[in-house]
Design a protein that fits this description.
The complex is a heterodimer.
Chain A: H1 2-21, E1 27-32, E2 43-46, E3 51-58, H2 66-84, E4 87-90, E5 98-104, H3 105-110, E6 117-124, E7 127-134, E8 138-144, E9 147-154, H4 167-182, H5 213-220
Helix pairs in contact in A: 2-4, 2-5
Chain B: H1 3-32, E1 45-47, E2 60-65, H2 72-78, E3 81-92, E4 97-109, E5 116-122, E6 132-139, E7 147-150, E8 157-161, E9 164-166, H3 170-181, H4 192-203
Parallel strand pairs in B: 5-7
Antiparallel strand pairs in B: 3-4, 3-6, 4-5, 6-7, 6-8, 8-9
Classes of the chains: A alpha/beta, B alpha+beta.
The structure holds zinc ion.
Residues 176, 180, 187 of chain A line the site of zinc ion.
């Protein structure tokens, strides 16, 4: 009898232990330093997989050369690599974690995307993972991102014209969007020199093409 | 146990330990490198003309825009329509785009034949229902006559809040602060909204 009671006790201990250590337990990041997004922003995300499977597509209306497209994507990945510390490999349409999709302005119009948008990023199938505080008072939530999708828009006219962009302008756009793709939600409230600053007009010299130490510090909270 | 057996067991552990150390060290070296594993000429670009479908369940949709301005004056010159209006309804067009219907209270620049306009926005930066705004708008391409987008993303929406104008853009916010502190030339233009209206109607 005593032996049976002992076994039940051990089993229930194990089940409690496995429950508390399972993914459903939220992680408390505590009071973090390095938060750079504005205080209207209350989320940040990250990829939990150690390998980022890439899937890259283009349609007929994306007129950038494959060489340039590849160079800018590699620039974006390299520029964030020291923070994210993940490997990258070639994925498929079903198993990718990060996708880059080159489309044209007419495609963007059919999706009702505002005419001045030249690129955008979305996270899908994300899970609530944890929470933390910035500046002692600002609460934020942490999500694991299952897939993140970036659209880049080739436009030959209008407010969102991109066909005349220089290599540095594109590197900037790709690195900025990849920052969102990796989990940087919102924009830097820190400096106009940050890659993740809100206004692209601050890149009037288009000198900022890589994340600054502050951009990296913000993502360093979750990576 | 004989001393020979102990020696074999010990050396086995040592070999395993050495291997683990090596494996660990190797992993670290790799992750400290500044390069991704895929080089530009390794990337596979898939050409597809399938209909683009926005993924379901997106929780973030953030855009980068090409028409940001360095000042309110620049933004108002670039705008097709500037209005004071109220958000009367909103429709989620897709998981990433929201359409807001704005009832026009005043027109500061341009001419809209309709009493309302539809504003196209990415879903993470939508206007708030029932709130009043000063909106700097550009005509949405290939869409109905009264369809617009907001100039410079967040730059072109100023929330009217208890006589104050609130902007998400630091460039615009700073200019509004300066405008508010300027001496009024008459009692009619004492509010920051009246001062802004004067600035815009003069620069267009
Ligand atoms: Zn952005």
């Amino acid at each position: 009898m005593l032996k049976r009671f002992g076994i039940v006790l051990i089993l229930s201990f194990i089940s409690v232990l496995s429950f508390t250590t399972s993914a459903s337990a939220l992680v408390n990041y505590g009071n973090v330093s390095g938060w750079m997004a504005s205080t209207s922003v209350s989320k940040i995300g990250f990829f939990s997989a150690s390998d980022i499977k890439l899937y890259i597509t283009k349609n007929s209306n994306w007129l950038m050369t494959d060489t340039n497209f590849s160079t800018y994507i590699t620039h974006a990945i390299d520029s964030w690599h020291s923070v994210v510390n993940k490997t990258t490999s070639t994925g498929t349409s079903s198993n990718f974690v990060k996708s880059f999709n080159g489309i044209g302005r007419s495609d963007a119009n059919s999706l009702s995307i505002p005419s001045n948008v030249l690129g955008l990023n979305t996270w899908t199938a994300s899970t609530y993972y944890g929470y933390g505080k910035a500046y002692g008072t600002h609460n934020f939530d942490v999500y694991t991102i299952q897939k993140s999708v970036t659209y880049l828009i080739w436009s030959t006219s209008g407010a969102g014209k991109t066909s005349d962009f220089t290599a540095n302008q594109w590197k900037n756009v790709f690195a900025h969007e990849y920052g969102h793709g990796l989990g940087y939600y919102g924009h830097s409230a820190n400096s106009t020199k940050d890659l993740m600053w809100e206004d692209t007009s601050s890149y009037s010299d288009w000198g900022t093409i890589s994340p600054t130490q502050y951009d990296k510090g913000h993502m360093g909270i979750v990576y | 146990m004989s001393s020979k057996k102990i020696l074999i067991a010990l050396s086995g552990t040592a070999v395993l330990g050495a291997f683990l150390l090596y494996a660990n060290g190797f992993g670290n070296n790799e992750s400290n490198s500044n390069d991704s594993d895929l080089r530009a000429n390794d990337l596979v670009i898939v050409k597809t003309d399938e209909k683009i479908s926005i993924p379901e369940g997106a929780i973030a949709a953030e855009g980068i825009v090409s028409d940001t301005s360095q000042s309110i004056e620049e933004m108002s010159i670039k705008s097709d329509l500037i209005i004071k209006g109220r958000v009367v309804s909103q429709e989620q067009f897709s998981s990433i785009v929201t359409h807001s219907t704005i009832e026009i209270i005043e027109q500061w620049k341009g001419n809209s034949d309709t009493e309302t306009v539809i504003v196209y926005q990415l879903s993470d930066e939508t206007l708030e229902l029932d709130k009043q705004y000063i909106l700097f708008l550009g005509k949405q391409e290939e869409e109905k006559e009264n369809s617009y987008y907001i100039k410079g993303g967040h730059q072109g929406d100023l929330l009217i809040d208890n006589g104050d104008l609130i902007s998400h853009s630091s460039i615009i916010s700073n200019e509004l602060i300066n405008l508010a502190s300027e001496k009024s030339r008459s009692s009619r233009e004492s509010s920051v909204e009246e001062k802004l209206k004067l600035l815009i109607t003069q620069s267009n």
